[in-house]
Each structure stands twice: as structure tokens, then as C-alpha cells.
What we know:
Elements: E1 9-13, H1 17-28, E2 32-37, H2 45-51, E3 54-57, H3 62-66, E4 70-73, H4 82-89, E5 94-96, H5 97-102, E6 108-113, H6 118-131, E7 138-140, E8 158-162, H7 165-168, E9 178-181, H8 195-203, E10 214-218, H9 222-228, E11 234-238, E12 247-251, E13 254-259, E14 262-268, H10 277-293, H11 297-305, E15 315-320, E16 323-327, H12 334-342, E17 351-357, H13 368-374, E18 375-381, H14 385-390, E19 412-413
Parallel strand pairs: 1-2, 1-4, 2-3, 4-5, 6-8, 6-9, 7-8, 9-10, 10-11, 11-12, 17-18
Antiparallel strand pairs: 12-13, 13-14, 15-16, 17-19
Helix pairs in contact: 6-10, 6-11
Amino acid sequence: MTFRVNGQDVVVVGGGRSGLAAAELLASRGARVTVTDSAPALAAADRFATLGVAVELGPHRPELFAKAHLVVLSPGVPSEQPAIEAARQGGVPVIGEVELASRWLKGRVIAITGTKGKSTTTTLAARMLTEAGFDAPAGGNLGPTLSAQVASSQPDSLHVVEVSSFQLESTERFHPWIAVLLNLSADHLDRHRSFEEYAAAKARIFANQTPEDWAVVNADDPAALELARGRRARRFDFALDAPLSDGVTVEGQQIVRRERGQAAPLLPLTSVKLSGRHLLSDVLAAAAVACLAGVPSDAMRRAVEGFEGLEHTLEAVAEIGRVRFVNDSKATNIVSARRSIESFNDVDRGVVVIMGGRFKGGRFADLRDVVAARVRAIVAIGEAQPLIESLEFRHVSGLRGSWPRVQGGSEDVG
């Protein structure tokens, strides 16, 4: 089905990175584009003017949406806003930026989602594919938006796309050749009305796949397995602990591909420079994608050996007075925080955790045992500070240290 916007009025909601890329793509395809944003000013105002894109700031006008032929949402924009919902009820199509871009891509899509590990897995998978000679740009929720990749997309391109629940919930035809589900736990419940709604958004990564496609799933994660159950795509799993007859796992000191019960080595564990079992699981997921795309093992090894992790993901910052400082501010939910704390298994109750920020759902009580095992003190900050302190981790047997009341912002910290 050919998708055209030439001569149509299109409203892009949100004037940030995704909105700018969507507006530029739409303008290049002949649409009359208006960007609307509730902010008082936009950093990209000059760029929008150069593109011939109209900009409206402040409260969204229902009449602007009502007369549009298409509405495109940036990922941070809730679709239940009254003006958007009224347009939808009036028959105006409402889609997201990822959905928009995917309709014009010439290459195939490898989409990666999950509650934790999307950026690491996306980056590693793209590195492995690139080492093997593929045109494999990484983007989506990470790096360049998918809209920014449309102009350079070729039939042999493999677009490695990190997709969030916000991006997936506004998809209709989005069709990954390989869809990866890393894990699933409560997150973003400040935006989604329930865990079930959040999970349903994640499940849309599989919605348009066919039996010719692949679903790559974490066999160690019961919730991910349940979400992937009954999907039409072929399954190819990865796991650190669950037994696999087919998929990618660890045997001894090797990451291996098991196929019909036989194991073929892919790369040694000594090649992996990342800390923590959860990051090793991300390496397995990336290797599973590489296997399906036909990447040879030596290319996988080179990609992994040259990768020391992403900023803000168990990132070593400094060592001062024999105290090691680690930035893991991308751990923005309870499960992520737990896995981060667990990664310090060589420390005898010496961890001080700065925890809090914006609360997005979940149970801080799920951290009690790992806090008791590894943590000396907690600094609670931001919006979630009272919730953390109310759990009285200080009463966990043996927990030492103090509970400073640090006033902080509402940024995500785990």
C-alpha cells in the first residue's frame, strides 16, 4: 500500500528531536506541516522556519487537529489529550513518528524493546552487523530518529531500532523482520494506566510479523515469554540460565549458539568488557540478532571487544580515596535498580546508592533483600524520596549507614 502525504495538512505534536525529524521528512514529501508544542519556545525554531513548517506554541487548538489529514505524535506526547482524541474520533488518523518513518523505509527493520537494556543491545547489534559489512544504522529511541534514516535507506539496509512503549503504542503497520523482547517488568506507570496497558504496548512489536519473521525472546524472563506466546513469527531465544535446545546461551567460558541440541562457539566471555549479568544478557540478545542475520563469529567478537558500554549505564566515573564512583542513571525503574545493585557482587556491603527521582511505578519493597545483601547506605532524592524512606530499609537486618534527606529534582535516577 503506497503511503502519500503530498498536498495534505499534517500536524506534528511535539517540537523536540522526533518532531523535528518527522516534520523534515513530511515536508520533503510535499506535506503542509504544522508543529504544535505546549512549550513557550522551541530550540529548533529556526530550523522549522527554514523547512517552511508552521509552528504553534501553547495550548493545542482542537480546530488545528480537526482539519488535519494526519496527526503525527512525538513519543513523549500522550495520545489521550482532548484535542488529539477529538481528532481521532472525527476520523483523523493519529500515528507516531516511528510508524510514519517505517512506511517509507526501503530496508528491513530489527526492532528491540524491553524494560531494561534496549540501548546496550541496540548498539551492540548494530556494531556486530556493521563489522560484518552490513549497512546497519542504529537509531529510534537511541541516536538518530527513524525518520532521519529514511532518505538513506536502501533495500539491503538493516535498521536497528530501539523502540519504547511510547513509540510502539502509536504503531499500526510497523513490521520488524526481527523483533527482540529483552525483558518485561513494571515501568512508565506514570504514563500507562496499568501494567497490562504497558505490556500491551510492548506486545505491538510482534503484531505485524509473519511466519517469515523472527521473534527473539529472553527465555529467562517468564513475563517476556508469556507476552511472546502465540505470536506468528519464528522464535529464537537467548538465556543465561534457562536450558535451550535452540538459541544463544553460555556454556563454560563461551557464548554459544545451540542448534538442534549442538553448540557452536560464537565468542569467549573474556571478550565482554561489561559488568553485571544483566548486561551479559544484552550481549546474548545482540548475538542472537547477529546469528539470524548471518554475522560470522569473528565479527561478533570484534564488535564486543571494542565496546566498553554506554554513558550512564554502569559507567565508571572516577576513583577518589579508594571510593569508586559509578554512574548508572539509566536505571530508571525498580528492576533496573535491582540489577545494578546486584552487579556489585565483589563488594562486601560497601555500596552507597543514590536512589529516587521520578516515580514510574513498581514496588521499592522488591529491593529489600538486595539492599540487605550489598548496600551500606541509601541517599533518597527527588519525587520518590518519601516512598523510599517509608519502606524503612534501615530496619533490614544489618543495614548500616544513614538516610540523608537530599532535596533533588525529578529526573530519573535508579
